[in-house]
Design goal:
heterodimer, A: 515 residues, mainly alpha, 21 helices, B: 58 residues, 2 helices, 0% strand
């Protein structure tokens, strides 16, 4: 049986890994030739095809942090983790494709805060851009940790050296090629990622002896009563069905798929709103399969390696150990493909978040607040420098994420839950109701984000270290933000109808879709 | 059991909304595309698969 030691790469595996790195860098550099303006860098010149954007959406969400994190969490909690891609992704993606995308696309914006700025006011725009931009750098750190952990456990590479190499490769093609390079390299990454994840699943199931044997072996272990259920009882301490439905399905999922700049930005770069919608549908279709490929390996790991990894509810749980063990089941040659898939996941996540963080800071903070007269050349130059700066910041931040979070997936979700509730409340209310105004929006941000910070802080400072799931944090911050936005809007002056045209569901813009 | 029905019900409602929502409300062009190119048909199919998944694995 495999152990948690490092592997010596076969020449074929090593060649495949190097080939993957070179191919991705070459595609990115080739596509960088056409980048002349900020619009090229941030929206790919609005020429991106739906099929490339659809696959890019998938791998911008699912990457190395999910391969490592969901294998860990599948081991600990079982199939309930698939909800993050089912009710937490497919449901909001379908809603977003038909209800929200047309407004964002027709508004011709670069960023979600830019839309919020037009709908509410500049304060809302700046606050959300700053919060999102900062959080994205924190998320980059979680992606770096998942990558460094995997390379360290599997190949014996130095944690920080692995991060340095990734920073260099991703930095080169993202800095030069912008969103177009990101989307087309993501297309390649998505294919490699699907192949790699399938290979791990198949090899693991063969090793266990099939699906029935997997269920039998897991059932013999303590604490695994619900490991093969998507829905947990209402009184379950984690991932109870009401918390999954309300916190994930109705708040965190929609906020992520409707309001996440890294997600929405690539759909804004499509050729038409029809193409934007088609890309979302393709993403939802792929997501029907992906969670199975990512969570089932955790169950296989539980059946095969529970002696080495340890009890599922261990207090001193250390993340990142399940996948490296599973990968060692693969024959040489195949291992190179899976490592390529892992790198695909890392790089597609990194390039998406760093490009979007740069877009936010340039378009919503640098230009409107400091350099309104900046020309396209300056926007392009500053955007590229910020990519370099944020990659360096994320790499440095990986030290803290590694120290303070047991699971990189949980770290990622925790960062998101701090502001997703408030963001979704403002987006929903702003798009659906004309009575909502800027003063209400500012109140909603302050109350919603403030409550989320308070609830997370209460976990550590409150009596007996009260346990509160990040899903409930997202839900209650949404409720608080929505209530305060409505309350303050109702007691302050409403906006005139002309100001809201094209920004609110009941007030469509005069202009029609160009295609 | 209740949770399973609630989750399947959410996707049933979504599929029903996608089925009845007027074309102009979701920004679709006047000309009706063939079924296999109609994103609304694909979306309803995906929602139906999710209903089945939650009823079977819930």
């Amino acid at each position: 049986m495999a152990s948690l030691g490092s592997l010596a790469l076969d020449p074929i595996d090593a060649a495949l890994v190097v080939l993957y790195f070179v191919a991705i860098a070459a595609i990115g550099l080739w596509l960088s030739r056409g980048v002349k303006t900020g619009k090229d860098l941030f929206l790919g010149g609005r020429t991106l095809p739906w099929w490339a954007v659809g696959t890019s959406l998938v791998v911008s969400d699912i990457g190395a942090k999910d391969m490592v994190g969901l294998a860990d969490d599948g081991y600990r909690y079982g199939m309930v983790m698939m909800n993050f891609d089912f009710i937490g992704c497919i449901f909001p993606v379908l809603v977003a494709a038909f209800l929200f995308m047309p407004y964002l696309w027709l508004a011709g914006v670069y960023t979600i805060p830019e839309y919020l700025g037009r709908r509410y006011n500049r304060t809302v725009r700046t606050l959300f851009a700053a919060i999102w931009g900062t959080s994205m750098v924190a998320m980059l750190a979680t992606i770096f940790v998942s990558a460094g952990t995997m390379f360290e456990h599997l190949l014996g590479w130095n944690f920080y050296l692995s991060i340095g190499v990734l920073t260099l490769v991703v930095g080169v093609y993202t800095t030069l090629g912008g969103l177009k390079a990101v989307v087309f390299t993501d297309f390649v990454s998505c294919i490699v990622l699907i192949i790699g994840a399938t290979l791990i699943c198949v090899a693991g199931l063969v090793e266990v002896g099939g699906w029935s044997e997997l269920q039998r072996r897991v059932a013999e272990l303590p604490g695994t009563d619900h490991h093969f259920q998507l829905i947990l009882p209402a009184d379950a301490p984690r991932f109870s069905w009401p918390s999954v439905l309300l916190g994930l399905g109705f708040v965190a999922g929609p906020a992520y798929w409707i309001g996440n700049q890294a997600i929405v930005q690539r759909t804004l770069g499509t050729t038409s709103q029809s193409a934007a919608r088609a890309s979302y549908i393709l993403c939802a279709a792929i997501k029907l399969v992906f969670p199975i490929l990512l969570v089932v390996p955790g169950l296989i790991g539980l059946a095969l390696f529970h002696d080495q990894v340890g009890p599922i509810h261990a207090a001193d749980w250390q993340g990142g150990r399940v996948l490296p063990l599973l990968v060692q089941l693969l024959p040489r040659g195949v291992l190179g493909i899976v490592l390529g898939a892992f790198m695909a996941g890392v790089m597609s996540n990194l390039d998406s978040y760093v490009n979007s963080a740069s877009t936010l800071w340039v378009k919503d903070i640098y230009v409107p607040l400091f350099r309104p007269q900046a020309d396209e050349g300056e926007v392009l130059r500053v955007g590229r420098w910020l990519v370099v700066l944020f990659l360096a910041g994320g790499a440095a931040g990986s030290y803290f994420v590694r120290q303070y979070f047991g699971s990189v997936f949980e770290a990622f979700q925790t960062f998101l839950s701090l502001f997703q509730g408030a963001l979704l409340a403002l987006l929903l209310l702003g798009m659906l109701f004309r009575r909502i105004n800027g003063a209400g929006g500012v109140a909603g941000i302050i109350v919603g984000v403030g409550l989320a910070f308070f609830l997370h802080g209460w976990k550590h400072l409150g009596p007996d270290h009260m346990e509160i799931s990040y899903l409930w944090v997202a839900w209650w911050s949404f409720v608080a933000a929505a209530a305060s936005t409505v309350a303050v809007s109702l007691v302050t002056k409403p906006y005139e109808e002309a100001r809201l045209r094209g920004l609110v569901y009941s007030l469509p813009a005069a202009e029609q879709e160009t295609q | 059991m209740i949770g399973r029905l609630v989750f399947a019900g959410v996707f049933a409602l979504l599929a029903a909304w996608l089925f009845v929502v007027p074309r102009h409300r979701i920004g679709q062009a006047e000309q009706r595309p063939p079924c296999w190119r109609n994103v609304r048909v694909w979306a309803i199919g995906i929602a139906a698969v999710q209903m089945a998944v939650y009823l079977f694995w819930g």
